[in-house]
Specification:
Number of helices: 5
Radius of gyration: 21 Å
Number of domains: 2
Helix content: 40-55%
Strand content: 15-25%
Oligomer: single chain
Low-confidence stretches: none
Number of strands: 7
Mean pLDDT: 87
Length: 196
């Protein structure tokens, strides 16, 4: 057996979900008419969006410049790409929210902006663009939910829950290592330490 030394593909993730309900793996996701395959793909997509919406080191950016887009003479808006899950102004003095595909200035009650602003963003990345440890967690979490909805086995659910917890710990360890977090640079921790 020749196993590739590459990160998990979407097809491998779908096959993992199929195996949890006793279905045979598929050779392709294209032109596959199985409802189980469609449901597995939807579950992976939904779980990926849920996991990524928390904001991980791999899909978060701070101080990202959002540019102006002209809508008519002299008026500009800030359009928000559809693959942004979360957006907030980097400057705490600026209150903006996403409304539809644009940013809305809550302070001035308008969609119009005079200049671009820097934002903290959480992107929704494609499965194949995620680090392996995130792919593992999404696949295992999705398989637990998928199995519980299709088969409903309590024993499999408990086993999957333990496997998911282990994958989550690996994900958090990777986040800490990759993010180069420093307790002394974290504002919340520093404020708490000053109280003592």
């Amino acid at each position: 057996m020749n196993l590739e030394q590459t990160p998990t593909t979407r097809q491998e993730a779908v096959n993992y979900l199929l195996l949890t309900i006793g279905e045979h793996p598929v050779n392709t996701l294209e032109k596959n008419r199985s409802s189980y395959v469609d449901q597995a793909q939807q579950m992976i997509h939904r779980t990926s969006r849920q996991v990524q919406s928390r904001g991980l080191y791999c899909n978060s950016e701070e101080n990202y410049k959002m540019s102006l887009s002209p809508v008519d003479y002299g008026n500009y808006v800030i359009e928000v790409p559809e693959n942004i899950l979360k957006i907030d102004a980097s400057n705490d003095n600026k209150e903006v929210v996403r409304r539809g595909d644009r940013l809305y200035d809550k302070e001035n009650h308008t969609f119009y902006f005079e200049e671009g602003i820097e934002c903290d963003i959480v992107w929704f990345l494609e499965f194949e663009d995620l680090p392996q440890v995130v792919r593992d967690y999404i696949t295992i979490k999705a398989s637990r939910i998928y199995q519980s909805k299709i088969v409903g086995s309590e024993a499999l659910y408990q086993f999957s829950m333990r496997e998911e917890q282990q994958a989550y710990l690996r994900l958090k360890t990777e986040e800490i290592d990759t993010g180069d977090y420093n307790m002394l640079e974290n504002q919340d921790i520093m404020q708490r330490m000053r109280r003592f």
